[in-house]
Prior knowledge:
- The chain is α/β, with parallel strands linked by helices.
- It has one domain: Alpha-Beta Barrel (TIM Barrel).
- Helix content is 38%, strand content 13%.
- The chain has ten helices and ten strands.
- A hairpin with a 6-residue loop joins strand 1 and strand 2.
- Helix 1 packs parallel to helix 9 (277-285) and helix 7 packs antiparallel against helix 10.
- The protein is globular, with a radius of gyration of 18 Å.
Amino acid sequence: MEKRPLGRSEIFISPIIMGTWQAGKSMWTGIDDQESIRAIRAAYDAGITTFDTAEVYGNGHSERILGKALKDIRHKVVIASKVFSNHLAYDQVFQACHRSLENLDTDYIDLYQIHWPPGSFGHRKVPLEETMQALLDLLQEGKIRAIGVSNFDAGQLREALKLGPIVSLQPPYSLFWRMIEAEIVPFCLDNEITILAYSPLAQGLLTGKFDADHVFEKGDHRRANRLFQPPLFNLALEALEKLKPIARSHGATLAQLALAWVIAHPGTCAIAGARNAEQAVQNAAAADISLGPKDLEEMDRISRLVTEKLDSNPVLWQW
């Protein structure tokens, strides 16, 4: 699999990144630790060299699983983690980073990201200058190799970039969720900030495996995903039917088509989770799909069946 530069850093990442929110188990159902480890290794064997996690994913459980899975090949992979919005004071950032280092069983984190902007989820709004200073000091100490942010809007991203070298932004982005295209994408391209798109499969919706009668189990956070609520869900099912011929023309699944669409955009990589080894291998194969201008034009048209019905709320879930 090709490697792409991570912003202006010296780090190179795979265009398909394995996300490990599900490995934390919290807010997911039916997750098995050994299956998660097998999926991580299968992803690596299939060419994925970059893995994304966060301290809040199962209160460190995802990080511990990832660290265990990658222990013997740590020097061959890129690990990205995140500090949550309740740990953004200077000392808290250091403490969170050291916990993550211990969880991951590593001496450094390649990309350390602010998971949500200060003040999110009712947490104290720590001045961004304070948080960034902690990250800059961790960078200087070699505990982290690069700094990124997640879920920042354009204004917050501009502010962060004034305070330090931001190499990446992690926003939700998929065929059915395209809010970053107006302001954020042009800004990132102009400033060589890599977009690490999360939920590129719209949390499974773009796989085509859900029908109109699907009900998520209690405890599955996707129950609150706006795309799974009517009328958006019904429109998405209609759009998926129209996408199937394009997928077939490339010998691809709907999921692979959706991932290929994301990474076809300049400066953009896709973070895709996997419950098992088979899903991880299938995700990796999306990097081999080449979409032409006509494909992209048709997919753009189809996706707007859904996106034109969305409001301006940038949060994917109704929490």
